């Protein structure tokens, strides 16, 4: 088994070795640009870790890992158009740096590049790999659609919200792990368990994200604390608060189209504190984390094989930025 | 072997049987909408015809045909955003009827649906099918990018133009035929020949389109005769005319940002007539058609098998609308 650091090295090399055509430049330059903005490469790492969990060599699943990373970056490019986002990892988004048309079409060809990488996996596993990848990709699109729809709705339930973050964020973690498992020849039962592990970690991770947005240490947090509050984003925290109180003060802050931003963040945070929303969110997060770790425990491989994946999951859920 | 009419019946049934999820509605409704706008279904028909050309049953390649049809419709949805087109087959485009964001995301999920259909082909051929499909999809994206870039350039050569229409239009015809051939177990040589047949027919078809735009019978033509002239579209005719003359009159019409449209169409057509541009375009078209029919001739199957495909190609090149 490779160490996590060794796997990251394998990924870095594979990413550097990704080659796209030179021409037409405007079609392919944005691909290298977005992929080289960096990021933690968690998703492709999960592909490799799952392959090694089941006793195969990570090099067997490098192409699938690249497919997942390119697909993920494709969704970022298109989501940034839809969300009208100017920045991604502190740099101009593709539609800002080039144009919306370039971002649409480069995104499209990234989807093709993802599929080209996927087609390189061992043909024995190809059908299963495709079915898993396509189901994952479909889920991610559905999640983005629901996220957009929720902006215009004021009756989103907690259950709908959890389903949305499951689709938008968690199924890609689950799908990445399942791909790695399939390529290692894992049993269908174990492949499903590792997928569920990823989905549950993903939901816990997103809930942690919601909590950090309000309660992160501003010194360590990469972005503005309270960003979700300012944007009235329907996070678990806001939906839970709305479910627990019919406080006119909270509704007033939501309805106020031109508030003092600092006052709004302070006031809404105070309401959350009073309603013990942070504790509720942490309880929910721990619930999904507990199911995830049970999924991992149920997988029939030697305990030692699970160590690195367990540790990565712990780190993802303990982060403070 | 099925007749062409029988194959069209198989396609109609398969299209009617395409099922997409009900939810989220805004993600999936546009797929049914665009696919049911109709069209001649030439591309999926080519998949089936190629399968039967090589002695297999068209039902073997129905899933690949659906993948091609869904992919083609996906490109229409995204191209219409990029081209800012209000109408498609006389109806509102997806971004007009819903929104640009819906059109982007529905398009993305159509690409996934195309891949899901593709994954259903006989696993024996899956790797080859994917490689062909992905190369085709990549070519189509490159063609659209070049088409957009050409709008802003005034030094496009005839050679570049032919390469652009090859990518944007012809590779999909060639790819559709090659998919059908692969699924019938055709030899690599024959699969390449049928692909080249499709590409050459596709280029001839697009040149015919350029000619019809100027010289169609207005009574039979579905759209405004001279539309390309009005839009200064860099077709084979315009590029050839610019290469053959440094007529200030032609350049004047191109530079005029607010011309009398009827006068412009008449005047530019008169210049084309004087320069015998129609004859040049027809010669070029016949050149590609001749290569195409030679490709078909070179394929090692009984002559009788080639009849329907030959006839379809003839019809495509003889159409007057």
Automatic annotation (TrEMBL), chains A, B:
Q: Does Transferase show up as a keyword for this record?
A: yes
Q: Which Pfam families match?
A: polyprenyl_synt (PF00348)
Q: Which GO terms describe its molecular function?
A: metal ion binding; prenyltransferase activity
Q: Could you list the residue ranges that cross the membrane?
A: none
Per UniProt, which keywords does this protein have? Answer: Magnesium, Metal-binding, Transferase
In terms of InterPro entries, this protein maps to:
Isoprenoid_synthase_dom_sf (IPR008949), Polyprenyl_synt (IPR000092), Polyprenyl_synt_CS (IPR033749)
Q: Which cofactor does it need?
A: Mg(2+)
Example GO BP: isoprenoid biosynthetic process
**Matching PANTHER family, A to Z?**
GERANYLGERANYL PYROPHOSPHATE SYNTHASE (PTHR12001), SHORT CHAIN ISOPRENYL DIPHOSPHATE SYNTHASE (PTHR12001:SF85)
In the record, the note on similarity to other proteins reads:
Belongs to the FPP/GGPP synthase family.
Protein's name in the database:
Isoprenyl synthetase
Q: Which organism is it from?
A: Pedobacter kyungheensis
